[in-house]
Fold this sequence. Notes:
The structure holds 2 protein chains of 2 kinds.
Chain A: H1 6-11, H2 13-46, H3 50-64, H4 68-83, H5 88-114, H6 118-126, H7 131-161, H8 173-184, H9 187-217
Helix pairs in contact in A: 2-3, 2-5, 2-7, 2-8, 3-5, 4-5, 5-7, 6-7, 7-9, 8-9
Chain B: E1 2-11, E2 14-24, E3 29-33, H1 40-47, E4 55-60, E5 63-64, H2 72-76, E6 79-82, H3 94-104, H4 110-123, H5 139-151, E7 157-161, H6 169-184, E8 189-192, H7 196-202, E9 205-210, E10 213-219, H8 220-225, H9 230-240
Helix pairs in contact in B: 3-4, 3-5, 4-5, 5-6
Amino acid sequence: MGDFDFGVIIQSLPFLGEGMLLSLWLTFLAIIGGIILGTLLALARLSGIAPLSLLAAGYVNLIRSVPLLLVLFWFYFLVPLALGRPIGSFYSALIAFVMFEAAYYSEIMRAGIQSVRRGQVQAGQSTGMNYWQIQRYVVLPQAFRNMIPILVSQGIILFQDTSLVYVVSLQDFMTSSSIVAKTEGRLVEMYVFAAFVYFVICLTGSIYVRRLKERISV
Amino acid sequence: MIKIDSISKWYGDFQVLTDCSTSVRQKEVVVVCGPSGSGKSTLIKCVNGLEPVQKGTITIEDQVITDKSTNLTALRSRIGMVFQHFELYPHMSVRENLCLAQEKVLKRSRDEAVARAESLLNRVDLIDHIDKYPGNLSGGQQQRVAIARSLAMDPIVMLFDEPTSALDPEMINEVLDVMIELAKEGMTMMVVTHEMGFARKVADRVVFMDEGIIIEDRPTADFFGNPESDRARDFLSKILNH
């Protein structure tokens, strides 16, 4: 333990950097996809059309009762079966994250939509706008703005969760660190370094969220 | 122009409107007043279908609002409405507030919509605030913008739901002045308000409501000069004697 070797970290930085790029890219795409799908789920749930809202509620509750790891496995094995051809671990992981996160984002967006005053909808209606126009131009922009801090917080959690793609052998930052740790026999250095990097990124994100909250509440 | 024919409305078991009938003719200004909780705001929200009714019919220019087959969306674009809490869109500038429905509903070009917005803002004396956001305006200014937003749709009738109730006293007149101006120009108006001075000055008729029932529906001078019911007399004495 006395010989903590920074050399191995510096040496493998390019390799780790590639892993980090994949982690960030996966997080980014999953956030975008998750928010879009989550918003649609929230709209379905609040639509007042019974079959639609039941379906959305069922989906959200099902996904939220299942471990993320399981969802990752599902899509890794099921999507190729359904499509009849392999799609690679990146896309199966991306689909899994989007489907999984959408359930959480839908709850956030639902709260956001409900935070917009009813009078805003009535104002839209009274000028002759239809349901979709009111959602698109009046309700969702406000719902989104009210929820930005929580959406970002959820994004930070998602970033940490991407380390689970380890199980479908996708080379994200965590997997890359682990590969170096094992091949170089430097477990302590690599896992400490990986933890440090996750810590710095997530702390930065959290500070940003706090700033956002302060700015919005003013 | 507006014909309300024996409508009733319930929230669950609670009846908010009971067999209400009245009408508004073209170019007429009708003030609806009454104690709070009397159902006057609910009544006016039924007129453009924001609130559904369970019994009776409402007709606007031969279109039956209460009929399920009526295209409410299209009809509403021609009925202006001003709300107690303004309901400007807080995430949009004054200009965008005025242009949104013009462009999305009336399909006006950007230039047309902006030109109309500017001329209306000139009229309510707020052209200098066109780039501001609602949060940076006073209540009175916001309500004048809201009136301009409704007028931008070239409505055939304007509905006002307690337009001055949420305002500080010193801002009430700037809003009433705009409304008086509108009435003089011949706009058909239905106004829920406690402002009896306004009613006296511009209303052709006053509808007095209590507990969801229309108690009096009479020409303005008659209503103020000689209210028929005890409830209206009581209401007037409370509201006028201070």
